[in-house]
Amino acid sequence: MEEIILKARNLKFSYEGNSHMALNDFSLDIPRGAKVAFLGSNGSGKSTFFLCCNGIHRPGSGMLYYNGKPMDYSRKGLLDLRKKVGIVFQDPDNQLFSASVYQEISFGILNLGVSKEAAKEAVERIMEEMDIASYREKPTHALSGGQKKLVSIADVLVMEPEIVIMDEPSSSLDPKHVRLVNQAVENMSAKGITVMMATHDVDYAFAWADEVVVIHEGRVLRQGPPQEIFADPALLHTANLTRPAVMEMYDILCRKGILNPDAPMPKKLEELLSRLTVL
Ligand code: ADP
Ligand code: MG
User: Shortest CA distance to 95 belongs to which of 167, 185, 195?
Assistant: First the structure.
């Protein structure tokens, strides 16, 4: 049976001075090592849930379990949790504190009390891996949006987390940096890291995710494999989601008798097109 790394049960959360519930009976299970896409309109509660996952927000009621244990909100508990659950914020300016890139990435790991030498080795390794070593001396505020995003990912990865949460990582990035971020995400999964990502890109979610979590008005409407989630028109309508382009085209081509519906549905448009060219 798959192991659940993070479990949420009936979380309720509202922001101070706001009677509106940002999370309202929010429950889900995250399998260890999975690629999990979070879909839902703006304001549905994705970011609020993410901030609960590493203890920045504490739910008013309900319970979060990490590796089967109720979340520990003591000082030490939170420190341990934040090593294991890293968040890449949607806006890097909320994460980076404008030291040099090198200082920025070493800050968190030095705070864990590791030796200077060990920290240096870890920071060098991650800068190499992310291909950001060439701007190591630059202050983070002088970087482009795409470079800031890569540094904020390195910031999290240097801690060797078990879960990486990415809040709309590709919003406002150019195509080159979208590719670099997607590559970094693939590398995380290859290392066995659990990745939770909020995105509005249904085509990407369909191709990438093992599991899709659909959030609506502070609740999990449904969690399941992308093929199931995107096959439910009523669910998509409620959550204001569109079907992935590859699904639409596959259906049309099957209806017209151009593709054989017994063959499995491809995950990406490129795969669908390559099937057409061999016809
Ligand atoms: P999403 O990430 O899905 O767009 P959020 O978690 O940011 O959704 O927002 C959920 C709800 O909480 C929304 O109604 C939003 O207006 C509210 N909210 C989010 N952040 C704050 C905040 N800092 N103060 C007050 N209300 C907030
Ligand atoms: Mg958000």
Answer: 167
